[in-house]
Write a structure and sequence with these properties.
The complex is a heterotrimer of chains A (292), B (655) and C (256).
Chain A lengths: L1 H16 L11 E3 L2 H9 L6 E2 L2 H7 L10 E2 L8 H7 L3 E4 L7 H5 L4 E3 L10 H14 L3 H22 L7 E6 L4 E4 L5 H8 L18 E2 L10 E5 L4 H9 L1 H5 L1 H4 L3 E4 L8 H16 L7
Parallel strand pairs in A: 1-2, 1-4, 2-3, 4-5, 6-9, 9-10
Antiparallel strand pairs in A: 6-7, 7-8
Chain B lengths: L6 H20 L15 H35 L11 H15 L1 H4 L4 H21 L4 H25 L5 H8 L8 H27 L3 H6 L4 H23 L5 H11 L5 H28 L7 H16 L24 H21 E4 L2 E4 L2 H36 L6 H4 L1 H15 L5 H24 L5 H24 L3 H10 L8 H20 L1 H6 L4 H6 L4 H23 L5 H11 L5 H25 L8 H18 L4
Antiparallel strand pairs in B: 1-2
Chain C lengths: L3 E10 L2 E11 L4 E6 L5 H8 L7 E6 L2 E2 L5 H7 E4 L11 H7 L2 H4 L7 H13 L15 H14 L4 E5 L7 H18 L2 E5 L3 H7 L2 E6 L2 E6 L1 H4 L2 H8 L3 E5 L5 E5 L1
Parallel strand pairs in C: 3-8, 3-9, 6-7, 7-8
Antiparallel strand pairs in C: 1-2, 1-4, 4-5, 9-10, 11-12
The chains are: A alpha/beta (292), B mainly alpha (655), C alpha/beta (256).
Chain lengths: 292, 655, 256
Amino acid sequence: MIQRRTFLTAAGILLAASSSGRAKPAPRLAAIDWAMMETAIALGHMPVAGAELIRYRADVEQPVIPQDVVDLGLRGSPNFELLQLVRPDLILSSPYYTQYRARLEGIAPVLSLTFFVPGEPPLPRAFAALADMGHEIGDTAAAARVAEAADAALDAAAARLAPFRDRPVALIDIGDARHMRMFGFDSLFGSTLERLGLTNARSQPTAFGFMAPVPLESLADMPDARVVVIGPPPLAARRALARSVLWRALPPVTQNRVHALPGLNPFGAIPTVLRFAAELERALTSGPTTIA
Amino acid sequence: MTRTLTLLPALGAAVLLWLLAAHALAGWHWPALPFRPEAMTLDQIRLAFGLMPRGAIALVAGAMLGLSGAILQVVLRNPVADPTTLGIQSGAQLALVLGTVIAPGLMEYGRWPVAVTGAAAASLLVMAIGARRAFAPVTMVIAGMLVGMTASAIATAVTLSQGEYLLSLVIWNGGSLVQQDWSGVRALAFVFAAGALAAGLLLRPLRVLSLGAEGARGLGLNVAAVRLLAVTVALVLAAAVSAEVGLVAFVGLAGPAAARAMGASGSGRLMVLSAVAGALLLSLSDGLVLTLAGLGAESFPTGALTGLIGGPLLIALLPRLRGATPPGEERAEASLRRARRPYRLLGAISAAILLAGVVLLVIGRVPGGWAVLDRHSFATFLPMRLPRLIGATAAGAALGMAGAILQRLTANPLASPEVLGVSGGAALGYALAVFFVAVPGTGTLAVGTMTGGIAALAVVAAFAQRRQMPPERILLAGIAVSALASAVLAAIMSVGDTRSFLVLAWLSGSAAMVTPAGAAGLCAVVAAVWAMALGTRRWLGILPLGDGVAGGLGLRTGGARLALVVVAGVAVGGATILVGPLSFVGLMAPHMARRMGLVLPMDHVTGAALIGGGLMLAADFGARMAGFPYELPLGLFASLIGAPWLIGLMMRRAR
Amino acid sequence: MSLFSLTGLTVDVPGRRLLDGLTLDVPKGQLIALIGHNGSGKSTLLKTLARQIAPSGGAIRFDGRPIGAWAARDHARRLAFMPQTTPPADGMTVAELVALGRYPWHGALGRFGPDDARAVDRALAECGVAALAERLVDTLSGGERQRAWLAMMVAQGAETLLLDEPISALDISHAVEVMSLVRDMCHSQRRSALVVLHDVNMAARYADHVIALRRGQVVMQGPPSDLMQPRMLEQIYGLPMQVMLRPDGTPVAVPA
């Protein structure tokens, strides 16, 4: 019994100590929302705990989350007891999780910022989040510095991407051999695309990129576009596309205008924006690929 | 024969809608046969390799589902049998989800083998359950829906655990008919031809089988072999459609229903007309989807549209089930054991639950191992743990009582809250609140859930009140309401966005959100329901003896049933907010109480409440600990315990 | 006053007329057999009298009042009904089953008082199942089970018993045992019993009065001696019948 009790206290201390290597006592952050987590990371404040890290590490890869960051479980139902044990100074959340806001506020102050608003481009909000969070954690200097650096990086990327302004870009995510998801101006990717001076082939909103899948053949309605495929398509889809008469007849495919990007977090923040810009630049400049 | 002509307007409408879409695409410049892509414009290719195979696959898949439903209805002599109600499509769904997630390598060889395996496993289970009860139609449908619900719940939870990355599964669940070449049509046409041929060969044995198993056996027919063959044919037809285009629900129910409405009576004409009607129905639905998409509306998968017809259709078909259950076939497992001292037994169970509750309050997992809380941690965690434990226990108790009441009310051992439709209605209410209220708070969500549950209950109660309505028919009305609710839910989700995941998360249930007030409220519901059961204990004793006896004793069965359905509905509605719509606790707890020898109405209801509470307490602990720190959905965890138990129970020979 | 008085009673189901304008008076204090061929409407008539089926036309008076006018529990105190197949009494003892017969007296919430307990004891004794009181109903033999159900009807305290083919599933010795019990219940306690029977010889042997139906209409009503005539039997069953006399003088009908 005593042994176990000691153990529990030790575990608490361990968790409490996990990020106290800094000179100035930095606020202990716990992130429920991935965009908030990325914003904190961008500010140089690695949270002590984050939600669904297994999935994040597998699918998003960058920025790298150190192994000592505590995994809080599913975003949809985080482990409140563990969160309590972590003793955060500030919990980073978003309006998606309002249903348990009261519960979170019982543990620590909550900072909830909005990234995605129907019909609005999310990029300005991702920048605003830097400032808001910087203000909240008392590190406005970092916020200004990071925002400036990000702006500069996007400007530079935009300049290098200028030769590609001749054609609109269709940002898609292939679901199966017959369907895809499109990213419009109201998605993080679409919003960044415009910041880079490129035109989105899709003009209607897409519910942040979460819209219902559309048939692949709707690409025929944008014959001039460069197609940028975000994330690797499923194996079965790749095989079926290779045989598909319709896919092979699509102008972007016949004219070699398909480019592939690695998996990115569609609901991320500034780190994802910068990574998307860099990957897009790499994909467009290094030339088309055959994804099928 | 003239009534068959009513098909013509449907055919005309389907063709017209398709031609409209074709015209919008390629005007009058149709490609010439044979199709040579290199000589065609892009729009001609879209017509020849997109729209044409799409029109063809709607016809073929619809015909396959119609034929599959007709075969199942003939062989099971059950007018509401179809690949959806018998759980076949959900079995295929679960197999495909598991395949995609666990062994994507398997999926490389195509979806077919995986889907057929899953469908076969599901239907084998349903048939095995049915065989124990002489394939009684109501039992078959209830068993099928339970197996189906479990399969979809697990599939949902797996999809949820994969975040948004299983786009292909979301697409598949919708059942989209979009095509890009003729390969799908070719494959389905081949299966359809083989299936139709097999059905033709089976026609004469099936006609003999329509005399009933005994009669057919007397004529020298190998009943088991014919049943197995016929069900296999129906299964392969449905699984093939599932694998190729996804979940297209209820066409197999609607096809034969339309065929019967046109006066098809013999097995042969029923099969042919069902296939024709199914083909037209799916074509018409797809034509509507095409037209809507052409008008710039959001893209909406065809399968989700046909799902919407299921609920109303089931309700419309209920009167056909007259006298469908052979007497004595639906009886519960005879419990010849009775507890000699029921109060002592109930006391022992209560003590065990209390003890378990106290233990669970102080132990738990921390990163790296297990721990008993010290005083300080205990003080910190108590406000979080106590409401949760109490809430989960109370929810289990409410479900257990609702199950006991429903099983007594209907004299059907498969009756459970899942089947009553309240859960489905509540889920729909929750989803609507999430989708139509900008930032729904807990209060709004509770109101939405309650309203949905009560609305579903009102529909079911309307059925319960009709004169001469056998109690098991109430269950089917509940199933119809569930089916409608889940179809609307699926339709909402297939158009989905991030809010879908809120709904998905809730669907599998979690006790983490229980507030002290919520837990107290649920306890009040439990107390009220128990008191109401106490007040109606004599009805609960008499109603299982059937209408004849109950009426003879001067019990107004209509009113009594209505009152008990409302009591059960309140209990389920309260519990559903917490644990989600599926848990099987309401099915398990009354059976376990019974097997312990708690037979008299109040012993049974009280025992079911205690056991239900204990089960949910255990499920909550398991859900929190099994995947620490990932908290598994409570309802799902409970049904993972419940489903195998349920299957074992139903496989046991009655008597 | 007659027990039941029917005027123009008609019962329809979609596409078929089960009872066709029945007008008759059913006497009190007797064991009355309802006979007829399959589908003649005898069970339908019994269920209509028991208020299990609503008539489509005509009127029924029970004990001088229209049957619809009786409140449910009042009705049940006067009339008890046993369906053709008694449902499984899952896990119930005989005493518990018989106690259910007191429902019309104490209702959903009333106390199960000493009067109720006495009525149950008397019923158990009268039907000869007192020794089986603690046995589970489902473990009894067919005859014992029928007697237990009869005891429930006795406990109900009703003076009128309606039984739908109570002996169709019993072997001959149990059938005789149950019918003797029913006859005693009528004669010694002045009850009336209306019993659907399909065995014409059992009807002749036990009934005081016989009502015969054919295609939803009454073909005869009167004492068993009127029934046991070859011409009458042929009219009822549509089959030539022969009536033979046993040594003790009682008639037995067999198909000719």
